[in-house]
Amino acid sequence: MLTGKLVTFEGPDGAGKTSALNAIVAKLKPRLGDRLVVTREPGGNHISEAIRTIILDRNNTMMDDRTEALLYAAARRQHIVQEILPALKQNQLVLCDRYIDSSVAYQGAGREIGEQAVYDMNQFATQGLTPDLTLYFDVDAAVGLKRIQTHRQNEINRLDVEALSFHHKVQAAYLRLLAANPERIKRVDASQPLEAVVSEALQIMTAQLPTYLTTEGKS
Ligand SMILES: Nc1ncnc2c1ncn2[C@@H]1O[C@H](COP(=O)(O)OP(=O)(O)O)[C@@H](O)[C@H]1O
Ligand SMILES: Cc1cn([C@H]2C[C@H](O)[C@@H](COP(=O)(O)OP(=O)(O)O)O2)c(=O)[nH]c1=O
């Protein structure tokens, strides 16, 4: 039985997901201890990290769009099997930086493979494993990119260097996902200062996962 919970963090590049995730972990760790698992896509284990290196390498200019989508799904599959499912079986709270919505937005819309096609292909990879809650860090794509260019020059990857029009397509797809999945996906105003973003995200998590986040850790 999967008694744990899966919370995913989504949004355009530079929305502040990783910064918020780190701050949330610092706040929840003292309370949840080993029940808290933090991970990211694409990655989280040796095989998925190796796939991540191939996908994000700026020298891989030859990569076909469908190859890219399949590699993300392959990394996701391995990550689910090695990290996410074992944690959910042990009643842990899994916080994951990006998941299937990233593929629908970036490959489905950004690369124009088709959002439904990418979603369907990912159903094969995930066997339907859907997050209990998704936080959508909402910031204009241009603002996100500007944050990265200002602060993270050394980490700019193959997707960060795409034109602004690509990132606008990604953002539009995220907003469609948000509208279509109001129960699962909750919007966080990521244009605020980090502290306010973290506080809003924590409020949503506590409201959506009340028994999980308000009871003392028993496994
Ligand atoms: N709320 C915020 N306001 C301004 N800058 C931010 C905010 N959150 C994050 N940043 C900065 O923007 C950059 C990208 O943040 P990051 O957390 O790596 O975003 P993401 O993981 O969504 O790509 C970092 O340099 C970070 O310090
Ligand atoms: C998980 C996933 C990520 N991506 C992209 C989004 C990011 O540009 C990149 C991940 O790089 P990363 O450096 O982790 O970016 P971020 O800090 O913004 O999360 O991969 C996809 O295109 N499809 C996917 O399915």
TrEMBL record:
Question: In terms of domain of life, where is this protein from?
Answer: Bacteria
**Record-listed ATP binding positions:** G11, P12, D13, G14, A15, G16, K17, T18
Q: Name one GO molecular function term.
A: dTMP kinase activity
Q: Does the keyword Transferase apply?
A: yes
Keyword set, alphabetical order:
ATP-binding, Kinase, Nucleotide biosynthesis, Nucleotide-binding, Transferase
PROSITE patterns from the entry?
THYMIDYLATE_KINASE
Q: Indicate the segments forming the Thymidylate kinase-like domain, all copies.
A: 9-200
PANTHER family given in the database record: THYMIDYLATE KINASE, UMP-CMP KINASE 2, MITOCHONDRIAL
Stated family: Belongs to the thymidylate kinase family.
Purpose = Phosphorylation of dTMP to form dTDP in both de novo and salvage pathways of dTTP synthesis.
> Which named protein is this?
Thymidylate kinase
Species this protein is from: Lactiplantibacillus modestisalitolerans
